[in-house]
Backbone:
């Protein structure tokens, strides 16, 4: 496995590997089983002859003031082991100074999909994500990139980024990996107290109930589905504080219309300082 620490080394890696299919897994490190599944999915897409490259970079521009940038877990040694064990060929782990020059003056802004859901409480977050992902796509020049469906809004925004800025990269959304009790894996789960951890799986249970009401019970009223999820969370997770529960079109992230092909329910709930998100596609 190649460990690439700066842009010069990356350019030489991409030039040596030109012509070989390249599948990219962007991450911020603190890797867990959810990332392992992304790397394995990338390995499958690349086949034995292709390359899987994982970036590990805690991107400062996607953290707001008062968010957990300095506290964000940095576990590079363990991360490298997980990447190796799951079939990565190369790791790109640059320094912040390498990617962001002190006098930089250009960045991206997203003006629609980022205005709902997590974007409401994290202004500027998705602008930072778009900027770093565009930079990484330019540097790595992948044929494909994989993103987890847990961060569904991020996935929808990356698809829009690729469409609107004509990146020649195929985006693949990969199913969320869960603990045995249904809790979506996240590097933020480590912040939960024992009591919060015990209540957190209620998010998944509430979303499954809502999907059942939609698929089996024929419930099409967004407000009723929202109420159902809110009631389940209130009953099962008194330690949680709901940030939002929204029923949206899965690609526009706006209120579903007659042309909506896939409906999504997305939730965000604070447990202490940890803000957990989850979602479910209604199909
Ligand atoms: O999902 C993440 O870990 C980050 O938002 C990403 C896509 C690596 C950009 O920093």
Residues:
């Amino acid at each position: 496995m190649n460990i690439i620490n700066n842009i010069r080394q990356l350019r030489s890696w991409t030039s040596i590997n030109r012509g070989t299919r390249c599948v990219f897994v962007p991450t911020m490190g603190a890797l867990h089983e959810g990332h392992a599944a992304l790397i394995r999915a990338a390995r499958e897409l690349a086949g034995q002859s292709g390359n899987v490259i994982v970036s590990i970079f805690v991107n400062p521009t996607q953290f707001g003031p008062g968010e957990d940038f300095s506290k964000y877990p940095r576990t590079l040694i363990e991360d490298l082991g997980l990447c190796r064990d799951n079939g990565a060929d190369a790791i790109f782990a640059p320094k912040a100074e390498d990617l962001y020059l002190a006098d930089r003056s250009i960045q991206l802004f997203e003006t629609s999909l980022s205005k709902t859901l997590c974007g409401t409480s994290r202004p500027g977050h998705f602008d930072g994500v778009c900027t770093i992902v565009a930079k990484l796509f330019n540097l790595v020049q992948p044929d494909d990139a994989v993103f987890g469906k847990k961060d569904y809004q991020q996935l929808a925004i990356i698809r829009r980024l690729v469409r609107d800025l004509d990146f020649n990269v195929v985006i693949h959304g990969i199913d969320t990996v869960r603990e045995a009790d249904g809790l979506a894996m996240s590097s933020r789960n480590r912040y939960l107290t024992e009591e919060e951890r015990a209540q957190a799986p209620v998010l998944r249970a509430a979303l499954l109930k809502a999907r059942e009401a939609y698929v089996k019970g024929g419930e099409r009223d967004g407000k009723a589905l929202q109420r159902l999820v809110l009631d389940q969370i209130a009953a099962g997770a008194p330690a949680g504080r709901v940030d939002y529960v929204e029923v949206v079109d899965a690609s526009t992230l706006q209120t579903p219309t007659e042309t909506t092909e896939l409906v999504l329910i997305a939730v965000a709930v604070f447990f202490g300082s940890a803000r957990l998100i989850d979602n479910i596609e209604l199909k």
Notes: Residues 187-282 form a domain with the Pantoate--beta-alanine Ligase; Chain: A,domain 2 fold (CATH 3.30.1300.10). The first strand starts at residue 2 and ends at 4.
